[in-house]
Amino acid sequence: MASSALIQDVGWRLRREAARLKWRGLAGLAGLVFVAGFVLSVLWPQQREIATLKDDVAELRARLRSVGDGPAAAVPPTRASQLGNFYAFFPAVDTLPDWVGQIHVAAKRNGLSLDQGDYQLQQTARERLLRYQVRLPVKGTYPQLRGFIREVLEKVPAAALDDVIVKRESAGQPWLEARVTFTVFLGAEP
Fold first, then answer.
1. How far is 93 from 165, CA to CA, in rounded Å?
2. Rounded distance, CA 181 to CA 190, Å?
3. Distance CA 181, CA 134 (A)
4. How far is residue 140's CA from residue 167's CA, in Å, rounded to a whole number?
5. Which of 31, 44, 149, 174 has its CA 20 to 30 Å from the CA of residue 9?
């Protein structure tokens, strides 16, 4: 019985203070409750995440320092090793049919047909890269042409877009006639 009397007393005091505060006081009290909720729900979890990330950074720095003390870390990469890494990026010559196949698949996916094309392998005596130039006449809409070029450049890592020549018979016609030239760079034997 004493607990119900206590609850009634607290309720009466809260109503009396609310009546005394009026609307401005209640707005301030609501603001304080909002701020407290914001701190509890947003700021504290962010502070915990920041502390976790700082611990991760400290751990990674310690690991980097321990690896940095080894003999391999003291030797900077040589020009020859950097150049070797550069040439290692380019695909081997025997993978050329796969890359040409990717170009044809990209055309098919974008609704273009490649009936004919001009394919030419080029190499000069001084260069360590082979160039395989692909000239393709295509006919389609502008979005199809653009999608085809984008997909080839995404799927064929060593391809470069050399040239695009676009013709349209009349301004109202949706079809374009284009000649697209790609160069696929291939690694040659040193």
1. 28
2. 27
3. 6
4. 11
5. 31
